[in-house]
Structure formats: C-alpha cells, structure tokens
Task: structure prediction
Amino acid sequence: MVALVIIALAAGGFGAIAWGVDRHRATFGALLPAGAAVAAAEVVWMVTMAVGLGNSPATAWIPWILSMAVGGAVAWAVAGFVGRTRHARQVERTNRILAMH
Result:
C-alpha cells in the first residue's frame, strides 16, 4: 500500500511539473496531467506486480522505475497534446469572433 502512495506522489509531482513548464497551461487545469500520470502509473504498477516482477529481488525495482517513467511520460504527453489543441481551438474561435465584427 505504501508503494502505491509513493508512486502516486511521484507521478503527481511529474504532472505538476509538466503543467508548470507548459506554455499553454492557461488552457487546462493543473490536475489534468497530474491525474493522468497517477492513473497511468498505478495501472502500470498493478500490471507489473500481477505479472510477477515484484516477487524476485532481482526484478523488484522494475515496477517502481517503470511506473514512474510511464507516469512522467503520460504527464508530458497529456500536457503537450491538450495544451496545443486547446490553444489552437481558442485562437481559431477568437479569429472567428473577430471576423464577425
């Protein structure tokens, strides 16, 4: 149980960093990349533990490192994709509004 909490905190931290670094962070909330990162990291941790990678001392580090790496990657991907698409839609909508007047 402690492992899930530590992995969730690390992935949430990666999500907060991804939101803070993104140029278009005004177009989406701070919890979106953090939540996606936590969800992905926990799913990866559960899958790797179900496969049995946490049973052997030689492979016990894989669920930890892999889940944190996937959580960080998902946070950056979500922040980048959502930020770019929402910014593009916002610019398009603003141009459409300005063209009416």
